[in-house]
Each structure stands twice: as structure tokens, then as C-alpha cells.
Amino acid sequence: MSRPNAESRPDPWRSPVIVAQIPDTGLHRKLEASAAELQAIAEVGGLREVLSAQAAFDVVPKSGGRIQVTGHVRARIGQICVVTLDPIESEIEEDVDLVFAPEAEGFYEQTLKYFDTMDIRPTLRGSLEADDITAYLRSPYELGWGKSVRFDHDFPGRAVLEGEAAAPTLQRVTLEFNSDDVIDVYASLFRDGEPYEFFEIPHAPRWIAWADKVMNEDGTAIGISSIPGYSLHFRRILTLAYVAPAFARPGSEVVVLWGNPGQPQKHIRATVRPAPYKTDARRDELTGAASAAAVPA
After folding, report:
1. How is domain 123-137+170-273 classified at the architecture level of CATH?
2. Is it the case that residue 289 has pLDDT exceeding 60?
3. Which pLDDT does position 23 carry in this prediction?
4. What whole-number distance in Å separates Cα of residue 210 and Cα of residue 228?
5. In the chain, helix, strand, coil percent, each to 5?
6. Where in the chain is the domain with CATH 2.40.30.110?
């Protein structure tokens, strides 16, 4: 049974910053939670009490409308020991280093309109940079559903689809990520400096939408790849992608720009494969079984 979509309740401790008012040199903010905010934090966290909470942040504008926030958060909390049931107090400290980027216009609203996200805020990630939600939407022909399109009646967008049927701009394929490049993404976790965007295994959490830029060897954009996933059977990172027809031939080599804007990015080599990726032999097996059954004993 589905539930109506609902907004999560507001954060109990926050300090809004107007992006347009952030100077080029950035700004520094120090925060200390009030008694009412401490109580609200405790309620949200299911704690006996929060005794204190302080934070200090540096907010610095970056290119492309992105904002980097670095700083430190410290709090002292009171809990009940699950063994002795005695009250205990603990210190919590956490460094913060985040980059905020403007989402494509309408992404959040579009997702909530058509899906029940179970109160989880949908997130858009990947190297593709676009200001409008339509850049992330695919047509029936790009999805490989062109055979189901009928032009025997009028409908919104018919003229556009007729043009696309005559001259497709993107074609659905599978991209097989280069394993050495994927391993290097994980290796960055053990090197100095900021690591690359982490590969979730086998798949990123629900309600994270992914769109990475696909390029040719010269760095020219030729398409978009979607959320990647790991196949234990094939021992590969695979993703559906939509590339220019000239690069859609199986065996073609392309490059996926991996990493969110404003963060470390890596060029991951990828090989074009058919979509679906796995050969569907179900019909062959049924045909073989029927032939065997027809042979007299």
C-alpha cells in the first residue's frame, strides 16, 4: 500500500544562508544551539538529552553556482546505558566538508509528483550539469521503445517524435566500465587528498538519480550514462547509457566522467555493449525442448 508523499519535518537546528549574499571571499559562521534547539535535537535523535552543541563553518562560493561548506561540529549528549540502565554522557565531534550544487529545475517536484519516495528526499548526482529537468528525461526512442510508438493519432510531442524516428539522436546501450579504473576509484580512499565519488556495491540507494557525462576520446560530450551497478555474475560495473548513434556500435570505446561537479572527477574508460547486456536464451531453450519432444522415441 502506498502512502501520500510528505515533506520531512524541518531540521531542529539550522542557520539559513542566502546564497546571493555570500561574498566571493566566503563567510564564517559560528553556531551554538539554544535550550529549545537542544531539546528538539534530542527528540529527533531519540536521546535522553543533548547538553550542548556547537559548530563552526566556512562557506565559500565555487564555480557553476556551487557552494563548499567546511567546518567542525561538537556536541555532548546524554543517553541511557542499555546494559546497566545508568545515565551516561558522551562527546561527539565530526568534521564537515560538503559541496552543494543547484539541482536541475523541477527534479525534486517531478519525482515527488509521480513516485512515493517513502519520505526520502530524492537526490540527483553525477557529472552532468544542466539547469532544466528535461535534460535528464529520455524519449521513447532513446529508451528503445520506438516500436511501440504509433502516429495514427494526435498527441503532445508528436512532431518531435516523428523527427526523432527519422533521425535518432541518442541510442540505448550498456556501458562496461574498465575494471582498472574502477579499482583506482576505490584506491583513492587510501591515498592522501579527497577521494573520488564512492561506488556503491551492488547499487546506489533508492531515490538517488544518476546522470554522468559520456565523452569520446577527445573529451566531446556524446551522451549520458545512468546509475551504475555491480554484477557479481559478470564481475563488472555496468550501466545503461544513451549515446550518439555513431558511438553505439558494440565494442566502441568511450569515457565516462565520474564524480560530482566541484569534487574530484575521474575519466573512466568504458566499452559499449548491447542493451540488454545479457543474451536472452529463453526462447532458444524452449524451441530446443519443443524439437526434442517432437522426435519419436
Report:
1. Beta Barrel (2.40)
2. no
3. 83
4. 8
5. 25, 35, 45
6. 123-137+170-273
